[in-house]
Amino acid sequence: MEVQYEIQGGDFSTAGQASSEIKKLLKQFNIDPQIVRRIAIALFEAEVNVVAHAYKGIMKADIEPESIRVIVEDEGPGIEDIEKAMEEGFSTASEAVRQMGFGAGMGLPNIKKNVDEMILTSVPGRGTCLKMKVLF
Amino acid sequence: MKQYTYTHAIQIDADKCIGCSHCMRVCPTEAIRIDGGHARIQSVRCVDCGECFRVCPQRAIYVKDDGLASVKSSGYRIALVPSIFIGQFPSDYSATRILEAVRQIGFDDVFEVEQAVDMVKSEYRHLENEIDQRPAITSFCPAVVRLIQVLYPSLTDQIIRLKAPHDIAALYLRKSKERQGIPPSEIYIYYITPCAAKIVAARDPVAEKESPIDGTIDMKIIYNLVSKIIREDKSSGLHKSYANMSPDSVCWSLSGTEKKYFSGRSLAIDGMNNVIEFLDKLESGQLAHIDFLEMRACDQGCAGGILCPCNRFLAVERLEQRQKKLEKLKLQNEGKVTNMLFEFSEELHRELQIDAVEPREGLQLDEDMGKALQKMKHIKKLMTFLPGFDCGACGAPSCRALAEDIAQDRASISYCVFVQRVMEKNYKLSPEQSFSVIEKIWGQNRLNKYTDENES
Question: Hey, what domains does chain A have and what are their CATH numbers?
Fold first, then answer.
């Protein structure tokens, strides 16, 4: 089953709505609650990345009997150096974003920790695409 | 699907219930539906928070306690009284006076629950460093514990595995009375409860094999009897000469005291909607670096309990006054508190742990993932036709809840009054059929009040 939600860049006040909606759906299945929790955390981090760095984005989730696949695609500045972006503590977030409590450089490593598969691709100047998979 | 039975104190009197749906609209877990003219509660989802009880205009929702009749006619009978009960009476009466009046009703002994709070505080000092699942959530409020089991299953392992004060107090009483030579089989403990959830907690505790409490009594009943006694004899009563518990323990059941006993970032959250809003964010991973959550389902904590007759703000103020009095006594005794419970602290310490709290399956569409996915797709499709008004005329609290009920074969699309109009227009449903659908939900005689004659 597929669902998709739009994410507005820069709108920190509503950040988390898309991931929360997907979490709500997952709670209705017989999935280990701790797996649902891991997915929720990964999706929230991914959503915040779009809000903090991109102009706009979309979160698409496909729920299947054994797994969930989620694609988070955005239009934005993209990532210059993906390897570097995956390092804990590395962040390009602006001072304003850090003031709001985001941009600690833990987002991508935290996503990696919580999902079973993760593919991050980006075209600098165009946008970023994050694909994640979690097995139930 | 696994079938569990859940004990509940919240009940509906079908003779009084007119199916007005006020309760259905406020239930935080969407556990209520209107069917056959009456409200019905789904056992797996009900957390006994009592929000429905507060809004019922017919007083058809009641709280089933064990009652005074359950108190044995012989044996050693002890009443466990929460501090909030004492806060129901003007400060002119001493706590000793109020407790004595409770004893006069027909108990051999009375004990204030909050004395056991001192034990919880000392447990927190040990536990603090051992808990790595943060934030730790207090097990104090049984409605919150059950809410987490139903709506936030991934957070159940963050609930602190510690007995609630009423349980600890009951354990202490059994031990100390036994030492005094009273046979264990002769000791009966009755808990005067401020809410429905505490009744359920005493009757059927979560993550504990059995309860040390023999019966529960609605606080209002004891309030009425004590009020009568103190009206007839207006003496203010004796005052204690020492503090029998640490002063702020009397305010533990309110909001904001418990959080002070867990170091780091601790938050106190009271009121069902506030608790839900916070847990939702927490479960989504939106909140980090919080160490402790003190949560109370009722606004102002137990002062807002549904069985507390007195205004909650007055009760809070009285308990604060009492805390000050105890602080004075403590000062007079060189800062010493004499809490008898600590004579048994080592023995109690060994018995205070509870098992892990398990989630309930209240939200699950189906145990089988494939079937659940089919149902979810059906719900998604239904949501595209339903109006999204959440009018409740279908007997479900929201369009989404109706869609779920349809997917679960518990309702039909024709329950929606908007869909009915379209079906009638397209000759899919006759006016008689749609009338019978409404009668099925709202009851046979519900619509008889209206006739063409009384229109003019």
Answer: 2-135 (3.30.565.10)
What are B374-426's pLDDT values in tens digits? 999 999 999 999 999 999 999 999 999 999 999 999 999 999 999 999 999 99
For A67, nearest residue in chain B (alpha carbons): B369
Q: Does residue B327 sit in the same domain as residue B376?
A: no
Residue B236: its pLDDT value, please?
Answer: 79
Chain B neighbors of A111, CB-CB under 8 A: none
**A13 has a chain B CB within 8 A of its CB:** no
**What per-residue confidence (pLDDT) applies to B239?**
86
Decide: helix, strand or coil at residue A105.
coil
Q: Is B352 exposed, middle or buried (0-12, 13-18, 19+ CB in 10 A)?
A: middle
Q: Does A41 touch chain B (CB under 8 A)?
A: yes
Q: What is the spatial distance between Cα B50 and Cα B385, in angstroms, rounded to a whole number?
A: 33
Which residue range is the domain that position B378 belongs to? 369-455
Interchain CB distance below 8 Å, A44 and B370: no
Instruction: Compare all CA atoms of chain B with the CA of A33 and give the residue at the minimum distance.
Output: B154
In chain A, residues with a C-beta closer than 8 Å to the C-beta of B281 are: 16
Q: Which residues, at least 6 apart from B337, have a Cβ–Cβ distance to it below 8 Å?
A: B118, B242, B243, B244, B245, B246, B330
What are the tens digits of pLDDT across the range A50-70?
999 999 999 999 999 999 999
Question: Which residue of A25, A40, A64 is in closest CB contact with B283?
Answer: A40
Specify the pTM. 0.93
